[in-house]
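User: Small ask, check this?
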Amino acid sequence: MTEITPSELRNHSSHILNRVEHGEHFTVVRGHTPTAQVIPAQKRAYQTRAEIAAAVATLPPVDAERLREDLDAVVDSDVVLDE
């Protein structure tokens, strides 16, 4: 992680943000004290409904009986939901 000063961040923000977009990380240091980090933002895995639908379409089918058995194995059978 590259250390930069607040004035470097202010004076070269466009250049620094371009580098961040390409995966670099920066620590903003005041004196000798780290005060902030400039890191890439988390990207969403899927951007559109169509992308989500395409990803879901590739999943295997759910075996309802197997799912019920798995749930019964880990869920307390004495739990009753109010109706």
Observations:
- DSSP finds four helices and three strands in the chain.
